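Continuing the series of single-chain predictions for the mutant panel. This is the parent chain; the variants come on the following pages.
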Amino acid sequence: QVRNDLTGVLYGEDIEISDTESFSNDPCTSVKKLKGNDVRIILGQFDEEMAVKVFCCAYDEEMYGSKYQWIIPGWYENLWWESWINSSQCLSKNLLAAMEGYIGVDFEPLSSKKNKTISGRTPQQYEKEYNARRGDGQSSKFHGYAYDGIWVIATTLQRAMTYLNSSKHQKIEDFNYTNHKLGKIFLSAMNETRFFGVTGEVVFRNGERMGTIKFTQFQEQKEVKVGEYNAVDDNLVIIENSIRFQGLEPPKDKTIIQEELRKISLPLYSILSALTILGMIMASAFLFFNIKNRNQKLIKMSSPYMNNLIILGGMLSYASIFLFGLDGSFVSEKTFETLCTVRTWILTVGYTTAFGAMFAKTWRVHAIFKNVKMKKKIIKDQKLLGIVGGMLLIDLCILICWQVVDPLRRTVEKYNMEPDPAGRDISIRPILEHCENTHMTIWLGIVYAYKGLLMLFGCFLAWETRNVSIPALNDSKYIGMSVYNVGIMCIIGAAVSFLTRDQPNVQFCIVALVIIFCSTITLCLVFVPKLITLRTNPDAATQNRRFQFTQNQKKEDSKTSTSVTSVNQASTSRLEGLQSENHRLRMKITELDKDLEEVTMQLQDTPEKTTYIKQNHYQDLNDILSIRNFTDGKDGEKAILKNHLDQNPPAQWGSSDPSRTSKDPIEDINSPEHIQRRLSLQLPILHHAYLPSIGGVDASCASPCVSPSASPRHRHVPPSFRVMVSGL
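Parent structure:
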């Protein structure tokens, strides 16, 4: 009945009762259920014997200390646990540890006030007289209530008699236990009773005594009064600094779960942002270098517009790092959801822009140098921009479909509860923000597949152009290194980022470092070699490696000859003039090569068509041979055909063979058959003079067309290397 009444009162005060357990013998099962239901404040109604068992079970279940508060009856005898400790299975120190801090609730046996009571005595005077009269007799804690009860009866009878005397219908002598009318008069008189007794204010409401409740707390193996509640005045008085809680604050009525957002550390974000800014400054420096030197032959051959796109893609990748570091601690939930989309778009477009431009200009080199038909092929930057635009268009199609069909949303992932690091009586439930959607795996697979194909295409182009001998055009080695580094870092970064998704600091650090490393390595591999070459030897990178080797060999021979002959300053100046004239004449050879090719094609045709060969062709051949003799640097060195023609001036073409006719021998040597024979000897001579300008054999090397009177240098210097030339 007491429990039911208490339950009704608690519900009326909007106090939730989490669980109610009853037991008759072993309370441990009930204690476990209370702990399982996360009950923190326990109201116990049991006697001393059962109290010992309950606290032993509480110790075993660790339901004591700063997180729990036990409230039990306070009318137990003094040192009540000592009488029942032997009947339990727990040690005395364990029992006292579990009992520490419990609060006992009991009525106040005597008032602590020093006011005079209805009897004219103070509660202290009454207690002193009571103990004197009691002597050695056993004391009862209810003696004060018995004393005040007698005064209640007396005052009730006096008030009832006064009422009956005034009514003159009934008298007190007419009282019996079946007289309901007199019973109501007595009950009404009792409810009107109000006086100050030795137990405090004596008042009745609905037949119940409204008294004073005393609160004690078990502290260091003894009960200490900590406060009292006056039910008449509805006033709770707590003695100052008397209650000792075992924690920093009173126990909570249940486990307080505090959600805590796992956010990115501000110092970490600042450090990575600083590294990102340095990377963007480096990219800006490369952009300035590329624009400033765009008219330099080295930079012009490496497609400066494509280089600008590579830098732009790197800077977009750098910029995405700032967005990856912004979470719920910096922006609102709606802004975070927008950032999910923006940072994905920026990183994707930046990646495609950088590597798309790099692969596009490599494709141009591949298309030119792998031209089997040897036709003149011009691929302008506009076409390369179109290729990069096509790659970006594919990206935009994927991203737009992603955004329309299944956009990225802000999701919150909750983790297991953790104890408070500060020691407070709360539990921390970490939560983490993610950018996810319903079919995240499918969309990422599409993006990764497209980027993977792009990387494979770049590797194919780099492999195909690996033998291009002009350094300014051949970036295959650097492209391969970039693809390797980016591929490895992306695979490692994606795996580690997935495994550390519950640690935002580690995940952000890995993602940021991967982006910084890949962007920096790519930009440095593209621009640092150009910067070094432009400062040291800008012409070497724009020349064919074979021609460069031949020129270096010439310089070494020239230095050796100069050291042997001790040429003075004037001779050096004359030598430079001759070299300049030699270069001009070689250019003339290049121009006349076309005419030579036409003559060769005509000579390979039918004999009937040879009559159409003009006299100016014959004169052009003599001019070519004259230039060849000048480039050899020796006035006495003449080609065999040139000597022969000087001795026999040319005549009209179309003469017949002397074996068939009796015409002049001059006409006989100008016949088509003799012209073909002479050209068969002239063409090797011409090729021998022309090859050095395109990286072939040195003009100074030994040749079957050199006269026996040639200089010793021509006879004894071995050739640099030998090549077979076709299609000249």
